[in-house]
Every structure is written in structure tokens, then in C-alpha cells.
Amino acid sequence: ATEIVGAEVAVEDPQAIAAQSARLFGAGAHERTRLRLEDRTLDFVPSQGNWRGLVALDLRARDQSRVGDWARIGGVKFRFV
Questions:
Q1: pLDDT at 72
Q2: DSSP at 12
Q3: What pairing do the DSSP bridges indicate for beta strands 3-11 and 40-46?
Q4: Rounded CA gap, 52 and 54, in Å?
Q5: Taking the CA of residue 47 as centre, how many other CA atoms within 13 Å lie in the half-sphere pointing to its CB?
């Protein structure tokens, strides 16, 4: 991987948290539950049961043949995009 280009975070109210985060970070563009921070995205998803917090990281694949591969480590899904 060369860099983190996105993340997914589980919260109770994804729309409200996305709007609040947009105001906090001064990000003008947000789409319901997605916050755009320059060339990166932060997606807020509904929490499942007691799980809240980081769900997934999107990593730019150094080798394009790895796009679509993923692994779960410590409850977090690492995805090559």
C-alpha cells in the first residue's frame, strides 16, 4: 500500500455525524454519510450491536493486481483500492 485514501467509521447516527464532522473540519462537501477531505473520504456507517469506531481503511494499492484484496486485522478491514 502507498497511502490511506479512505476510512469507514461505525456510529449511531451516520447522517448527523457526517454533517457535524463537515462543520468541524471545514469540509464543504459531504454526501449524507460521506465526508470528502481533499482526495480522501470518510464514510460513516450505522453501528452494528456494540461495535462503534473504525470499521475499515481503504489503502491505495501499490500493485494494481491487488485491488479488491482485503484482510481483517484487529476487527478492522484493510481494503486495497
A1: 97
A2: S
A3: parallel
A4: 7
A5: 10
| Nearest Cα residue to 10 out of 61, 47, 60 | 47
User: How far apart, in Å, do the first and last CA atoms of the chain sit?
Assistant: 9
Strand ordering across the sheet containing 30-31: 30-31, 34-37, 40-46, 3-11, 53-60, 76-80, 70-73
Question: Which DSSP symbol is given to 49?
Answer: T
Structure-block grid coordinates of residue 41: 473520504
Cβ neighbors of 37 (< 8 A, separation 6 or more) are: 25, 27
What does R_g of the chain's alpha carbons equal in angstroms? 13
pLDDT tens across the length of the chain (81 residues): 999 999 999 999 999 999 999 888 877 656 789 998 888 999 999 998 888 999 999 999 999 999 999 999 999 999 999
